[in-house]
Amino acid sequence: MASLRKDLGLFSLIMITVGSAIGSGIFLTPGKVASYLPDAGLILMAWGIGGLLALLGSMTYAELGGMYPQAGGMYNYLRAAYGKKLAFMYGWANLLVINTGSLAALALAFATYLDKLIPLGGAWGIQAAAAGCLLLVTAMNLFSVRTGSLLVNSITLLKLLGLALVVGVGLFYVHNPDCGCASTSGPDSGNLGQMLGLAMAGVLWSYGGGQHASYLAGEARNAQRTIPQAMVLGTLVVIICYLLMNQAYLSMLTPQEMATSDAVAADALSRWLGPWGGQLVAGIIMLSVLGTAYVFTLTAPRIYYRMAEEKTFFPFLGKLNPRTDTPVNAILLQSAWALCLLLFWGTFSNTITYVLITDWLFFGLAALAVIVLRIRQPEAPRPVRVWGYPFIPGLYVLGAFSFVVFTFGQNYLQAVATAAVLGAGLLMYVLFARRGK
Question: 223 Cβ partners below 8 Å, 6+ apart?
């Protein structure tokens, strides 16, 4: 019987962690963050809080990654802690909300920046280009994991060089006394909590994705060690990049200028290097988004593959391509639904809001699994133990659930859609459970 090949080493897994996190967010969301927090110090504080939360999460998931080094990542953690029903719900949510919605948002981001280089003729042209992006990354993923990992490594290194260009110009070339970190008028103290909560949607979207390395544990060498190391080290790289990028933006633009920009990096470099600077960074962003979309297309189908193996999902999703040993049916189904979401939600902002509510609900539940398993299985082997237990996982759980409650209350359409999908998932679980008897 065909099985997943163990082709991925530590460097490739770190590149996947970094590549899945650094995609569209740092290029598209800083303007939205600045619109809620028009103060340089508050902007950096928001990105710092998001980075701290991401680091707490990677430290927490490192223990789980060491305990369950199999394909599927968070699906395995949820199943071990809460049982088959919640694990099924996570796989279902990935297929209908989390990963497919993220793919749709990334494709829209790609098309938005392509429109800056080649006019696409409005909303329909952008959606058509986004659909083309989805088809491209789907085709790329039908080849072997090893070939794909080499591509991810190359794209991730190139995007880090692009980030270095923005940081270098912002911190070492520009000397603008009107920018820097000088404070401007920000929200009053009564609204600060709400404004920070709204701003965190863009921040947490940008930091999300680092868990994707854990989905590939079944294809990783020495997974008990390399998966936890990749998640923590990769998250640290992302935090450093994001803080430097925002400092660079603030060196080139005032917070008010950032707040009115949908493409902060392009606008900033266009101002200081001329039109060619904006076009260069637009190309870098397209490459960055394409690489992240590739990673998202690569990783989550391993969840559906594992569920099918366990006979808790559609059997055809458990079939591998006999030549490349990739879950081709799972990849194709995922991309087809991502295309549906792309056409339904239409815009980047609507799509990421749809994703974030469900995504962070399961992030919180997966982190809570560390505490649950420490209580239920105190003697289980743990190659990696989270430092600062139970405070580190506890703080992460509190932050994740607080964000979910706040975002749910602020976005009713996406909240209703998410609740409907999860309700349908419960019905599907009952059907699959009966079928398996």
Answer: 6, 65, 69, 70, 217
Distances (CA, A) of 208 to 38, 43, 138, 200, 414: 23, 18, 21, 12, 18
Among residues 345, 407, 335, 374, which one has the least CA distance to residue 135?
335
Q: Which two tokens stand for residue 347?
A: 């815009």
Cα 37 from Cα 45, distance rounded (Å): 10
How confident is the model at residue 18, as a pLDDT?
Answer: 83
- CATH code of the domain occupying 10-436: 1.20.1740.10
Q: What does each C-alpha distance from 215 to 61, 90, 208, 337, 395 come to in angstroms?
A: 12, 13, 14, 20, 24
pLDDT over 60 (residue 147): no
More confident of the two residues 311 and 423: 423
Among candidate residues 146, 166, 362, the one with its CA nearest the CA of residue 253: 166
Distances (CA, A) of 183 to 37, 101, 171, 261, 341: 11, 36, 18, 19, 40
The residue that leads in pLDDT, 268 or 50, is 50
Report d(CA 77, CA 67) in Å as an integer. Answer: 9
Tell me which residue of 342, 336, 353 sits closest to 106, measured CA to CA: 342
Helices (H), 208-327: 212-215, 223-252, 255-259, 264-273, 275-299, 301-309
> CB atoms < 10 A from the CB of 324, how many?
18
Q: Tell me: pLDDT of 189 over 70.
A: no
Q: How does residue 190 score in pLDDT terms, banded at 50, 70 and 90?
A: low
**Rounded to an integer, what distance in angstroms lies between the CA atom of residue 3 and that of residue 23?**
30
Q: What are phi and psi of 220, to 5 degrees?
A: -105, 140
Q: For 324-340, what is the mean pLDDT? A: 87
Domain locations in the chain as residue ranges: 10-436
CA angle 60, 62, 64 (to 5 degrees): 85
Q: Angle, to 10 degrees, between the axis of helix 275-299 and the axis of helix 301-309?
A: 0
Q: Is the dihedral of CA 369, 379, 10, 141 positive or negative?
A: negative
User: 22-36, 204-218, 412-426: lowest mean pLDDT where?
Assistant: 204-218
Residue pLDDT, tens place only, 105-143: 999 989 988 887 888 888 889 999 999 999 988 888 776
